[in-house]
Specification:
The chain has about 425 residues and is an alpha+beta fold. The chain has nine helices and 18 strands. Helix content is about 20%, strand content about 30%. It binds zinc ion. The site of zinc ion has 9 residues, from helix 9.
């Protein structure tokens, strides 16, 4: 074959490669590259509005890997961040995931304009058998991913920590089969003392009941496992800094994240991952023992909800819409100009909001005989359209329906666009 022939052959190989769906790994290929255990990579993301750095903290080996053994490559293009794992010898991409963290949200606060801060972050992947190259990527304002960190990991390096998980009791409260073909949701106790573990177990049963009242989860009940970890706190409740209340709790959760009273989160990702390692998990749910309204959900990171507010039922699945489904909030504030949060010439990455820059990428296929943008009038109350006001801004960003679980607590349903995104995500875990 002459040189031109070789070039053409390369082109054919490239075209074939691109034409193949990304999720083509077989279980055998998983076994070639990975053990059924977790490699956890912890790092700090430090910086401010203009620049940031990744600083490696530690590597750990953990005993469970609950994820799919065939859906190894994530081609959903969701999340503020993304990581890729390459087999070092062959340069083959063998694992990838999109995710988000609190650092990206913090960048939109005033504090990030004048102060550098560090946020501890952690990502998990199946444990490689050989040396791998890890690449971290960050989305830029045009919504493209840029590489920000590269590190070779020798899986036989004796500095990869191999400590036992904390000694907390684990109980599986819904068992539909082996983790690799199921979505494993693991609930961590936060702000529950040893004496309150009976309450924690009852709370988990109650929230699992709420969870399966909501579509599409109720239709996928047989594809989901629920585990609970009885992680004990020294004190009951959680921090409420605005009221001067501080509690010694196992996961260090707090209201008033970024000075927003109802924003209940934890920055202590290290403790969250340490406790979560007690059980198999695809999604971490932190249940906080308080009657105060609040919660938070960060894509492929964790979900968090208070246990005893009258609206906790709605909040539980709303936050899971963020943490599991990568969905945006569909509500708006009246004091945030769209341009400060969005580049209006491109689509935001979340499936359920649009700038109309390229509506065909979003849910245009689900719209029938409704004007775009859609007037928020009574006759379109049940229609799928593009209603102005979503993603924290009143203008220039649009949501699919008049009301949805991602917009308010007055409905307990995800809209059809959110449901479609959730089903697409469910399929990443159950094959
Ligand atoms: Zn929705």
């Amino acid at each position: 074959m002459n040189a031109k022939g070789i070039k053409n052959l390369n082109l054919i190989v490239l075209v074939l490669f691109l034409a193949v769906p990304f999720s083509v790994f077989s279980q055998q290929q998983f076994n070639d590259f990975f053990e059924t255990k977790t490699l956890r990579v912890d790092y700090s993301r430090v910086g401010d509005k203009d620049s940031s750095w990744i600083i490696l903290e530690q590597l750990k080996k953990e005993v469970f890997w609950a994820g799919s053994k065939t859906e190894l490559i994530d081609s959903l293009n969701l999340g503020d961040y993304y990581f890729e794992l390459y087999d070092s010898a062959s340069s083959q991409l063998i694992f990838s995931r999109g995710y988000s963290s609190l650092f990206r949200e913090w960048l939109d606060t005033d504090e990030a304009k004048k102060l550098k801060r560090g946020f501890y972050e952690s990502i998990v992947m199946p444990f490689p058998k050989q040396t791998v190259k890890l690449i971290l990527l960050t989305r830029n304002r045009n919504n493209e991913f840029n590489e920000v960190f590269e590190h070779y990991i020798n899986s036989k390096d004796y500095y990869i920590k191999n400590e036992k998980a904390p000694n907390f009791e684990v109980k599986t409260i819904l068992n539909n089969g082996v983790s690799e073909n199921k979505l494993d949701i693991t609930i961590l106790a936060e702000g529950y003392t040893a004496e309150e573990m009976g309450k924690f177990e009852k709370d988990c049963e109650r929230f699992m009941g709420f969870f399966f009242e909501v579509s599409p989860f109720l239709e996928f009940k047989n594809d989901i496992n629920f585990h609970i970890i009885k992680s004990i706190s020294q004190e009951s409740g959680t921090d409420i800094p605005g009221d001067g209340i501080w509690k010694n709790t196992v996961l260090n959760s707090s209201f008033y994240t970024f000075y927003s009273e109802r924003y209940l989160t934890t920055l202590d990702i290290k403790s969250v991952r340490d406790v979560a390692a007690c059980a198999p998990y695809d999604q971490i749910y932190i249940l906080v023992n308080t009657s105060k309204y609040g919660g938070g959900g960060i894509y492929n990171y964790y979900n968090l909800c208070s246990s005893d507010h009258a609206n906790s039922k709605q909040v539980f699945t709303h936050e899971f819409g963020h943490g599991f489904g990568a969905l945006a909030d569909e509500y708006a504030y009246d004091d945030v100009p769209a341009e400060t949060l969005y580049n209006l010439s491109v689509e935001p990455w979340q499936r359920n909001i649009t700038t109309l820059a390229n509506f065909a990428e979003k849910w245009k296929d689900m719209v029938n005989n409704v004007p775009i943008p859609t007037p928020d009038e009574a006759k379109y109350k049940k229609s799928i359209g593009a209603f102005e006001g979503a993603g924290y801004v009143l203008h220039k960003v649009y949501r699919p329906v008049h009301d949805c679980k991602m917009r308010s607590n007055s409905t307990d349903e995800f809209c059809p666009v959110c449901q479609r995104a959730l089903i697409e995500m469910l399929n990443m875990y159950i094959r």
